[in-house]
Every structure is written in structure tokens, then in C-alpha cells.
Write a structure and sequence with these properties.
The chain is α+β, with helices and mostly antiparallel strands. It has helices at 11-23, 27-32, 45-57, 60-71, 73-82, 91-97, 109-120, 124-127, 167-188, 197-211, 214-227, 259-266, 270-288, 324-338, 342-352, 361-376, 385-398, 405-424, 430-445, 448-481, 495-522, 527-553; strands at 128-131, 137-138, 142-149, 156-163, 234-235, 248-252, 290-292, 300-305, 308-313, 319-321, 354-355, 401-402. The chain has four domains: 4-102 and 171-206, no CATH class; 103-170 and 207-253, Phosphorylase Kinase, domain 1; 266-446, no CATH class; 459-553, no CATH class. β8 (300-305) and β9 (308-313) form a beta hairpin.
Length: 554
């Protein structure tokens, strides 16, 4: 087996990874990865002994978490991404990886001051009236300081998020190494394919790259503000772009309380906060298709009056996006769950995923029905929506459906906010909170003007297809004239199959002719010709269904 040492330039970092693996009882894995040369190093005997002790004291999932923590910010972030993938990892791993926290010792203030001044091109005294030397929070990617911004409209209380110097280079180095490791693992450890290491690193690469660019986070904040303009409960911090850059982000200071402090110490109403927070996340996901992917308690600030709380959301670097099509499919899945329609639920989940192999649909539907029964036979308010989504995703994956990463982020966001909500309001009914949004979205989907727009869009596509059809038919006829057209069947001696294929081609040409002619006439200005065109389109559709029925009877 080729050694990974020959495929990686950063041998020092690779050796560090090896030492950490051995320390936590993964020496055998390191051997399988080809660390053969390092394994004879006598200086590692203490690490090996510690690894054996770790195996006896900690579960496998715990040791994976400890490895990530020891290897630093890149691997911590990778572990956090892995905790959003219930389709790949068992529940025990998900629970353990969620414990990863990247709180670290703060940097000296001199380093922060230099980073701000270099990035913004001005001194702290020129930019800020005051700047607290003690950070509000320190993490592996950045740390946050409170300050007062000198502003033309008057002093502004702000928080300044400062990226740690050189962290981008460190992360880039680790990402390159992780790509190499993932490919090597897939080649040398066949059983690793179930965890999709290469795809997981790709997802991590995209997430960490976005998180390192504070300009993107500023854009996210502006988009959230537009989406929630006039909303009675949601608050997002203003961004001061004149004092921000790719590595420094200056935002409005939200003067409020952490969730549990607001309830326990300041008299805020837990049920009101739970309902408001749940409604905000549901609107983000199902109405806007742009949502905060990590709404944990540390990223929520409670403001306003105790009886009328407002929910401020911060740390807007990690977001999820759903295309209109994916949002529609996700809504279909939720409505099927509310209606307790197992078959519709299986169909919606199938539409969301991408088949990676031929799927036994009967067995797949039975699996979805079994999993749904586990939840949907309860009163709606007792259903754990996030747990249901997690189980359904695992069931779909078992049958070969690959679920998009953004849909998995939906599950993570709902899981997080549902967990907080039920902790402060045990009677929280997530389905009931979601119902008004789903009903409004359904009304919008089937509103006459929306249906007319969709029909017109479909007609435009049909017109385009009809416009292209003559050229495509000409190419087919040219191939036929020149002897380049061939038909292939599984059994060349089966004349019935060839005959059926001929009838299908003939029917297709007739239908295409009526569709093309009808579309051309409908797009004209004459009302009479439009009427004739509509009849031709209708005749084409009837002809098509008639031939399909005849074909099925034969």
C-alpha cells in the first residue's frame, strides 16, 4: 500500500495528525493510511499508551471529538459540519459532535489592533471613539470586541469581529490536506465510502471559505434585514461597511440578553420567545429560502419588552439556501407529514433526493411508512419534527437516495430551534406554528395569477421546444438518408418490439406536428387563429394519450 507521506507536502502537519490519532487510540487507522515510517518512532510510545487508555475510557464518538479538538479550528469546523449529516453518521456520533465548541484563549490586544488597522487602513483612534481591549468572545476563527464607532450621524455602539491573523493560511493548508486525506482514505479503506469523505470535505471547504470572508457575512445581514423588514419579532444587526472589510466586520451592538438569562433573570415570557423564534426560522426556510444555519442559544439575543420579546440573530456567516424548486419540494414534504399521508411523504422525499442506484420503490415506501408511523400517530404537538426529518433522511439514504447538503442544513436549523423552544416551552407545537406559513404558501402557489404565470412560462418553454423541433427532425432525417440512423433493441429478433417502436416514433411525430403548429398559431395576433391553435394543441394532447393507452393494451 502506497504511503500517504508520498502524496502530501506538509509532512510536519501530517505527523502532527498522526500523533493525535495515536494519542486517542486510532493507531491502527493511521497504519492503514500508510504512516508506516512514523510508526517506528520510539518517541511515540507514550502516545500509544495514552491511546490505549483513551480506548478504554471513551467511546468511539468521544475519541473522534477529542481528535478534532486537538487538531484545531479546521478540524473542529469539519466536526461541526459532520454533526449536520444524520444521513452519514449514527445518532451517537451526531450528539457527540454537537458538543464541539471552538472557544479558545483570546489573542493579545496588540495582535487584534494590528489586524484591524492593517485591514481597514486607519488607526483605531481614527475609526473608534473607544475600543474595549477585553473581548466579548473568542473563537478559533475570530474574536469579538465591543467598541464605539465614530460616525457622521453620531456615536454608534458596535461590536467588531476581527479575524485571527494568519488563520486563512492555516485553514487553506488544512483544507488541501483534508482533500488529499479524503481521497486517500476512499482508495485505501473501502468501508469508508459509506461516510462519503470526499463529499464531506467539499461541503466543509465551501462552508469554511464563506465563513472566512466577512464581506459575505455583511451581505447576509443585509439580505436578512430586507427579508424581515417590518417583522414584529425579528431583529438583525446593522452593518457599518465603512468600518468593515474581508477580515473585520463592524456591526450594531444589540443590547439584550441571552435566551436563558432573559427568562430566568429579566422576566421574559418563555412561550412567547419559543413561538417567535420558531416562526422566524420557519419563515426563513419555507418562505425566503435563505436561513440562519446555526441558530444556537449563543447566536440569539432577546430584546424588547418581556411581554413582547424581539429575537435578535447574530453570527450570520453560516447560512443555508433553498432554490424555489427545493423549497416547493420541502413544503410538499411538510404538508404530507401534517396530513399524515405516507405515500405523499415518500414521494416528496424521493423528489428532494437524487437516486445513486436503482431503488426498490416498494421497499422504500414501506420504510418511509414505518418511520412515519413512529411519529405521525401522535398528536402533532408531541412530534419532534427534527427527529422525524433525521430518521427519514437516514431511511432514504439506506435505499440509495442522496440528500442535498442544504436540505440537511434545514434539518439542523429546525433541530436547534426546536430543541431550544421545547426547553423553554415544553408545550411548543412546531407543526402548529408552521401551519399558517404552509397554508399561505399553498394559497400563493395556486393563486390564479401564479397559475397563469406558470402556464405562460410552460407555454414559452413549449414554444422554444417546438421552434427547435424542425432542426432536430431534419438532423434525424439526414441521418436516416445517409444510413447513419440505427435502432438498438435488447432482442433484435423480436419484431414486435421493433413494430411498437415504429408506432411510437410515428405517434411522436404527429404529436410534435400538432404542438408546433398549434403553438405558432396561438402566439399570433388573430383571435381566430389562436382558437384554431388551441384546438390543435388539445388534439395533440388527446392523440398522445390515446396512443399511450393503445400501447399499454398491446
Amino acid at each position: 500500500m502506497a504511503s500517504i507521506l508520498t502524496a502530501v507536502r506538509d509532512i510536519g502537519r501530517l505527523r502532527e495528525i498522526y500523533v493525535v490519532l495515536v494519542r486517542h487510540g486510532f493507531g491502527e487507522l493511521a497504519q492503514r493510511l500508510g504512516f508506516n515510517r512514523s510508526s517506528k518512532d520510539e518517541s511515540l510510545s507514550g502516545e500509544t499508551e495514552e491511546g490505549e487508555q483513551s480506548k478504554s475510557k471513551h467511546s468511539l464518538a468521544e475519541r473522534v471529538r477529542l481528535v478534532a479538538m486537538d487538531l484545531g479550528p479546521s478540524f473542529v469546523k469539519l466536526g461541526q459540519i459532520a454533526s449536520t449529516r444524520p444521513d452519514l453518521f449514527p445518532e451517537t456520533w451526531i450528539v457527540e459532535l454537537k458538543k464541539l465548541q471552538d472557544e479558545v484563549s483570546p489573542l493579545p490586544f496588540e495582535d487584534i489592533e494590528k489586524q484591524v488597522e492593517t485591514s481597514l487602513g486607519a488607526t483605531l483612534d481614527e475609526l473608534f471613539e473607544s475600543f474595549d481591549e477585553e473581548p466579548l468572545a473568542a473563537a478559533s476563527i475570530a474574536q469579538v470586541h465591543r467598541a464605539v464607532l465614530a460616525h457622521p450621524e453620531g456615536s454608534k455602539e458596535v461590536v467588531v469581529k476581527v479575524q485571527r491573523p494568519n488563520i486563512a493560511g492555516t485553514v487553506a493548508r488544512d483544507v488541501d490536506l483534508l482533500h488529499t486525506l479524503a481521497r486517500f482514505v476512499e482508495r485505501t479503506i473501502p468501508e469508508s465510502h459509506i461516510y462519503q469523505p470526499t463529499a464531506l470535505v467539499e461541503q466543509f471547504d465551501q462552508a469554511i471559505t464563506s465563513e472566512l470572508d466577512f464581506v459575505l457575512e455583511a451581505d447576509n445581514a443585509l439580505r436578512f434585514q430586507r427579508n424581515f423588514e417590518g417583522h414584529p419579532h425579528a431583529v438583525f444587526p446593522l452593518v457599518y461597511k465603512d468600518a468593515s472589510s474581508k477580515r473585520v466586520l463592524t456591526m450594531e451592538f444589540l443590547d439584550g440578553y441571552k435566551v436563558y438569562d432573559a427568562i430566568d433573570e429579566h422576566g421574559f415570557d418563555g412561550p412567547a420567545i419559543a413561538k417567535a423564534s420558531t416562526g422566524i426560522v420557519i419563515k426563513m426556510i419555507f418562505e425566503d429560502g435563505f436561513f440562519h444555519a446555526d441558530p444556537h442559544p449563543g447566536n440569539i439575543i432577546i430584546l424588547g419588552h418581556p411581554d413582547r420579546p424581539k429575537v435578535g440573530l447574530i453570527d450570520l456567516g453560516m447560512v443555508g439556501r433553498l432554490t424555489p424548486e427545493m423549497r416547493r419540494k420541502t413544503i410538499d414534504m411538510m404538508i404530507a407529514a401534517i396530513r399524515q399521508d405516507h405515500e405523499a411523504l415518500a414521494d416528496a422525499l424521493y423528489d428532494i433526493g437524487t437516486p445513486t442506484k436503482k431503488i426498490d420503490m416498494r421497499a422504500y415506501r414501506a420504510e418511509v411508512a414505518f418511520l412515519a408511523d413512529k411519529y405521525l400517530n401522535k398528536p402533532l404537538k408531541e412530534i419532534e419534527l427534527s427527529a422525524m426529518i433525521s430518521d427519514l433522511v437516514q431511511g432514504a439514504t439506506k435505499y440509495g437516495l442522496e440528500i442535498p447538503a442544504d436540505f440537511l442544513l434545514v434539518g439542523k436549523a429546525l433541530m436547534t430551534i426546536e430543541g431550544i423552544g421545547k426547553e423553554i416551552h415544553p408545550e411548543l407545537d412546531v407543526f402548529e406554528e408552521a401551519r399558517p406559513y404552509f397554508m399561505d404558501l399553498l394559497k400563493q402557489r395556486y393563486a390564479p395569477e401564479r397559475v397563469a404565470t406558470d402556464m405562460w412560462r410552460g407555454l414559452e418553454r413549449l414554444s422554444t421546444a417546438a421552434y427547435d423541433l424542425p432542426q432536430q427532425m431534419r438532423e434525424v432525417l439526414d441521418d436516416l438518408r445517409l444510413g447513419r440512423l440505427s435502432l438498438r433493441t435488447h432482442d433484435p429478433e423480436d419484431h414486435k418490439m421493433v413494430d411498437r417502436l415504429g408506432r411510437r416514433i410515428f405517434a411522436g411525430l404527429v404529436v410534435a406536428t400538432f404542438v408546433f403548429s398549434g403553438t405558432w398559431l396561438v402566439s399570433g395576433e388573430s383571435v381566430a387563429l389562436q382558437y384554431v391553435g388551441g384546438l390543435m394543441l388539445a388534439f395533440g394532447v388527446v392523440w398522445m394519450f390515446w396512443h399511450v393507452l393503445l400501447d399499454l393494451r398491446r
